[in-house]
Structures are given as structure tokens and as C-alpha cells.
Amino acid sequence: MRFSHKLLLLSVMMILLASFEMTAFAAEISLQEAIEAGLNNNSDILDAKDNLVNIERELKQLQVDDDWHLDLNVDSYAHELDLDDELSDVEFSITGSKTYWGGLTLESELYGSGDYSSQEDINDDETGLKLKLSQNLYPRIANQSEQSYIKAQLDLQAAQSELEKEKQAKIITWIREYLNLLRLKEKYEVAVKKNELAVNNFTEVNDKKRINEASEIDILTAQIELEESQYNLKEADNNYQQAKKSFYHQLKLENQDQLVLSADSKYLVMLEEMALRQEINFDDQAKLLDLSSVNSVELLKNKLEQESVRDDLEWSKAEDKPNLDLTGSYDSVDQDWGVGLSLSYNLFDSGKQKLAEEDLEAELTALEREHNDLIRDLSLDLEEIIDQIRLTETKLGTKKLSLSKAKLEKKIAEEQLTRGLIDKWELKEKKLALREAEINQREVEDELLVNKLELIKLLGMGHFEGGNKLEKIN
To answer: What compartments host this protein (predicted)?
Structure first.
């Protein structure tokens, strides 16, 4: 039996030691680090980054495609079908070409032919160089590669803006979730205190019942309060744990990571200071709309699409004009060179060109209508955020009054306790009510901060990427 007790004690010590080691080695992670992890692992952000990388790769490929291209061709053949005859003729050529986006095309060819079976024949070989060039004079039309490159550059601008928008939207969402998690933890701590108070009150009422100082109603009342506090405690714990799991999932944090919940987080304080420094005149709607229009990713994408369609329309109209090219050639063997002009013009295409231009003009008109719709939508979004900020500020004023009332009630309860007018349980209840009022006010302050961050993002008045990368944009 003594051995069994020792074994049990040893097992308990090992479990406690393992638990201590798990706690000791669990990595603490700050809000800054959590956001950095989210920016590095979030699927939407990674998709936006992949899109950006693909466009950059496409731009490089388009540049490579128009660089010099060299080809080698060698042909060898015998004059007669005689297996013992080693005499043969050889012809070779090395051709190169390069197209410049200014309309210039260069072609070169180094060629040679002869019988290379003896030294004398080698000296009699023919080797020469041919050069050809073509320069587009009128109209100036970008070639296919240049057109693709111009469009890819427009896509790159849109992708860069889309990535930044996605980052800032995610950061604001994560800040909201972090603040919610912080308040849920505080509410859970209050629920623990309330449950302790209910347990102690139930115990005290039971003790009074034994000496006939408490009625059956008092016992039932205390029991109901205890069961309600236990339910509220479990609900508060569930809400906190579910919110924590959701936050970890969104930012791809590991389960063993210990997220530090603190209102004094350096990054959170930086955001609060940035929001506080912004001086925004809500009544100057025209200026605010101009700022948000300049910063709008949707309007930028619309503008770039219009630019792309205008380019297509310009190129399409240019193709319908007479085409004039300057050409030149040179052959070192024949000592022959020449220059000339080349004129080409499509006399009849069954109206195909006109239909293509009409389609492009219709597409441009639709994009201009979309631009006006986006401006109206942006104006509504701006009004909605401003109204929400004003409404939240009013709500905050009410919560401040409630907090002042809770502070006064706690002070009065302390005075009543000293005079014996109330018991210690009532004072504890007032203290918990004060704590709840503080949490309620902070919740509204959190809401106001998030609303201001949304407005700052909409107006482009601040830039926050995570970690310590935070700056104010004038």
C-alpha cells in the first residue's frame, strides 16, 4: 500500500512537471507578431501576392521574347552516292533577329558554304553577312509584344493596389477581433467573480437556514442566482474560447502560441495615436470624397481599364490607316546594299475593322457609366462611416454617464457599509457592476477606433501594414 501511494505521488508530480514545462515553453506572441503571421499566411493575401508575382513574371517574359534570338543551321551532303567518297559540301547559317518597341526590326544572317575536305577547299569557301532592317514610319503602332507589355503594366498597378487594400482590410478586421477577444476575456473574469460571489452567498444563506435565519424562499433565490451565475460563466468561457479559436484560425497561429492580450500593445497604441492625430472635417464632404476617390482601388481599376480600352481603340484606328515603313538591306558577299519605302493599305475588310471599333467604343461608354456609379457608391460609403462614427460618439457619451453612475453607486455603497446599512455582498456587487460599466465603455471605444480606422483607410490618410510599419500620410 505504501508503494502504491509513492507511485501515485510520483505520477502526480510528473504530470505537474509536464504541465509546467508545457506552460514554460509555450511561445508568447504579441499583437504585432500575430498580425505579421496573418499577413504572411492569410490565403486571400497570398492569392493577391501570387497574382502580383505572376504579372511581374509576365512582364519579364515579354521583355525576353523581344530580345535577340539566334539560330544555327548546318547542312552537309555528298555530290555522289559513294560510301568511300569523303568529299562533301557544307552549308551553314547563323541567323539573328530583334524587334524594338520603337517600330524597328533588325535581322542578321552569317552564312557560309563550301567543300571543307582539304585546306585548299577551305580557303575557297564563301562566307558572308546579310543585314536587313525595317522601321515603321507611319502610323506609329505598338507591336503585339509592346501592346501586351503596356496592358500588363496596367494590370500590375491594379494588382499592387489590390494587395495593399487587402492587407489593410484584413488588419482592421484582425484589430476588431483582437479587441473583441480582449473584452471577452475581461467579461469572463467578471463572470468568475460573480460566480464566486453567488457560491459564497448560497453557502451563507444555507448556514443561516440551519439556524432559522433564512427562509425557503431565500434558499431558492440564492440557488437560482448560483445556477444563473454558473450558466453565465460557462457562456462567457465558451464565447471567449470560440473567439480565440476563430482569431487563431484567421491568422494561422499555432495552438501552442500564447497570444498576449493587452490594451497596452505597442501596435494597438500606435493605431490609437494615429486615429487621434487625424483632424477630419466631417462637414467638408466634397474634400473627403475627393480624397477617397484618389485612394479608391475600384476607381483605379476602372481608370486603368478605360486606359486599356482607349489604347485598343487607338491601335485599332491606326491599323486602318496606310502603313509606311523604311526598309534597308546589306550583303557583304555581293557588296550590295539598298534602302526603300514600303507602303501597304487594306482596301476592303467587309466592315470588320469598323465593328471592332464600335465594340471598343461601347465598352468604353460602359466603363464611364461604371465610373459614375462607383463615385456614387463611394459617396454613400463615406456618409455611412461618418454617420456611424457620430452615432458611436453619442453612444460613448451615454456609456461614460453609466460609468460615472456606477462609480458613484460604488462610493455610496462603501459609505453605507461603514454605517452598517448594507452587507459586504452588496458592496462586491457594486464593484462588479462598476467593472462591467468600464468594459462596456471600452467596447464602445473599440468600436469607435475601428470606425476611424475604416475612415482613414477609405481616405488614404494613413498606412498600416502590421508590426511597427505604421505611418501617417499627409
So the answer is: Cell outer membrane
